[in-house]
Design goal:
511 residues; alpha+beta; 27 strands; transmembrane; Serine/threonine-protein kinase PBL13; membrane; kinase activity
Amino acid sequence: MQNFHSSLEQLKSAQSSLHNSLNRTILTFRNFSVDVQKSFDVIRHEMTEYKYTQHQTTQVTRNNVYMSKLNTILLQIVSNELAIRTALSDCRRGVLSLEVVPVERLTEKIDQLMSLAPYRGFQLAVENVEQLYLEKLTTCQLTDEKLKVWLKIPLKTVNTEWKIISFWPIPFAWEETLCRLFQGTEPVLAATNKDVVVPLTGPELKHCKENNVCQVPRIEGSYTTVGQCLRDFYSGRTAAELAKSCPFHCKHSSTPEILQLAADQFIVASAGSHAISVRCGKFVTRQNSLGFGSFRFTVPGNCTLSIDNNVAVNKRVTMPRSASTVHGVEFVLPAVWTTRLNVELDSIRDFPNAPKFVNDDKILNSSWPLHTTTFLEPDSLPAVNIKEVKTRVMKAYRYFPGEEIVLLAVIGGLTILAILNTFGLLILYLKIKWACNSIPRGPVSKITKIVEVVDDDPAEESERHDPAPTSINFATGSVRRSIRGRVDQRDHRPESIPLRQMADTPPVGIL
């Protein structure tokens, strides 16, 4: 029994030791587990930080890509807005913008247009496509979604040519009236092609003045008063026919009128009594108006022209090399032509040799009836007797170099001789050289001093006072202001015609 109790005590002691050892092992394991957990936590934390860093890097890279795309879109928006502003600015000026329509695209569209049936047989009226960007041919419309652009493409019939002629109405004084072939003081522009003469009026005239491309009107020129007159001038008619189609327009006026023909050339028409003078420094040339005809003054750049002591033409600021250095005054009187109304004038389009007349004093009429339209009463029509006018020499006189073609027309019994130059039609007149103190006062019938010889050849300068020849010479030449284009008379399709840049010299014209 004692052994049993002793063994039991040993067993309890061993059990207690085992329990203590097990507790220590469990505690150690728990501590180890805690350490392992801590290690895992550290590892997990480090892995989380790595993933977070990697995520942040990816996110930053992705944001950079988004910002780059956003900047690109903003740049495109700014560029498009700038292009639209540029296009709108060009549209306001009426020109086509390269920002909107590149040259290649415009060329492609024009080629497609010209391949269509209605436009076969036509071609561009300008030399190249690039010129379309310089002309005022564009209209635009801006909406919320798009910019619409319309371009007028100027076309002409293949192998056709037009000419532009400028008619300037020179004033002519008679008693209390001032007369012109056309009403108004502005030049009359007309497009000519063979027998077709079409005055440019209204929208066509405005467009032609603002551009180097002119549009031929659809209206046939012969169905307008001005067009009929210009066609007769251009095609060639008898003096009697021209008298019917080209009436004189007169108005009551005693106010002097000045027309500038060139830089130093001026026409002064005065129906009333006025004192006209040209002052060049201390030297003054005085001239009283006669109440009829006109005066042609050469006023150099350092001189002034005054009417009744009031300066009408000032000095020039700049002096071109071709400017006149000597002032002069000439009396301009239209030739009277009534005895040979059946004479037929050659067409100016063919530029043939013009007729020549001998003993020109025999072609002058004894009376000068002035037929008007609405401005004068029939009972007040003036007349003048010029039987005593003994013309010794009258030759075709050229205002400036290059003016060569001569025309002639009777306007209501009054014959007008005109010159067509590179800018228009000019008066051809009886050139009367008057001394400042020898101009006759009184009626025309007392005029005895008459024309000096005027020749275009400088070599004949010594013959200018030779009274022997008695003839009228008509020079010939060409028109340099030429344009291309054509009006199709079958369907009245309007066309455009290119016009070169206008010359700087002011155009001159016709009485």
